[in-house]
Amino acid sequence: PEFVFVGRITGLLDVKWSDDKDFLPPHGYAYVPLGHKYKLDSGLMQITYDSGAKVILQGPCTYKVESTAGGYLALGKLTARVGAGDGKGSSSKVQGSRSTSLTTSHQPLATNSNPQSLIPNPLFAVRTPTAIVTDLGTEFGVEVDEAGVTESHVFRGKVKVLVLDGTGNLPSPSGRGAGGEGSGREVILRENESARVEKGEGGGGPRLVLHGAAGDPPVFVRRLVRPPKLLDLLDIVAGGNGTRWGRERGIDQTTGMEDPLFVARDGRGDGRYRPVAFRGGLIDGVFVPDGRAGAVQLDSAGHAFDGFPPTDGRFWGSIWARAADVSPVSLNQQYVPWVYMIDRCGRFMPERRGLLCMHANGGITFNLEAMRKMHPSERLARFRAVAGLTRSDDLHPDGTGEGMADVWVLVDGRLKFKRAGLHAQDGPVKVDVELAPADRFLTLVSTDGGNGNQRDRVVFGDPVLQMASTEPEESAGGDTEQSEKKGTGPICRNGPEGASHKLDLSPFSPRTERRVLP
User: pLDDT tens across 340-364, in order?
Assistant: First the structure.
């Protein structure tokens, strides 16, 4: 059949579609055809009508598009934000002669159903089993429970709530209960006011209950925000650009050269800062920290730090980007290095990204300016990781000689985070460092705790740089369209109209989607 398109899907967030055999889920950012029904078991879906209205469906939810300016909410929650022009343009398409005669099956919403009409429908309306909620400008929420009870709440502007009769139709103009505002069948709600339309007792028709400004409305999702973009530092250490999933590579901190395999060796630093040239400039350099000689150089710009304690100047193995899941090949070796034998490491990587393994004493500096040049439309906002000292009970069952180490985070030579005297039993330590636009270098350091570096197995789990857009976000009523959501994955930019697609690393589910359009 040919379709009339009245808008398009502009956001999908953690959506699980209904398993109803008669329901056909849309494919990604599909156009929205007139008469189509959407059934969500969970998650959020945003529709942008060509009129400019934006509707967010909040699962579980069943919604049918009944006109160019509204639809039928059979179950669940939605929020509607009506603003002229937001959805107009060439994105919607009309196909076939059906567009010239299509009308909705229910007269309450039989407004302008013809996208080719020269007279646009001025009012956006949501029909439910018991009421019609008509927008009078500009943002409201509607909830329908399993009994068909309708609850409406106004965030900004006002709406008209019209109570339907017991059969779900408009009340007869000459029948009982007919009338305008104040008649008990119709009411105007203003900002922060809410109302409920309940089923009548004893088989009677629905009745209107006003809550006024003191009502306790349902929790509505008013914005479908874009997850923050993350640059993955493990991918950068492994040779990537931070947007992929590179792992199982490392760097020799005495030479600055790549280690394609983990080199399990006892090394000693020479006090020199070693530039890293093979990572596309995203890693500035590496070093072995030791405060015995005074200030330690941290980056190629000459920033130095004189607060490191005296260490033994030794380290064990590469600075290594370890995957969350260890390959059987890595475990089937005559000698298994510490980066694969550490136990209970899952607590250091709650997002299952992996571990930046930095046995004391080690230091690595990332070039923030080079990352900004790669992502000019993004701002480096903060560095996040979960640090700690791991234990390898398989290597040392008696637990003797437990390690103790210090963890440091510096920006342009300035100390931003420090945890001294860290033991394995201390568990995970959250690291969250804010970054300024002028910051050039981020340095991560591990040092021994003054008792040598034996078993000082320091890790930075799930290390990422959180980025924020430099472009202004849409805002309404003081609500900024930003997200502090943790655990979001890398974002790629190859979707429609700049869509941000989360790379879902969980087991594939054909009915689960997570996509957002700004």
Answer: 877 667 889 999 999 999 999 999 9
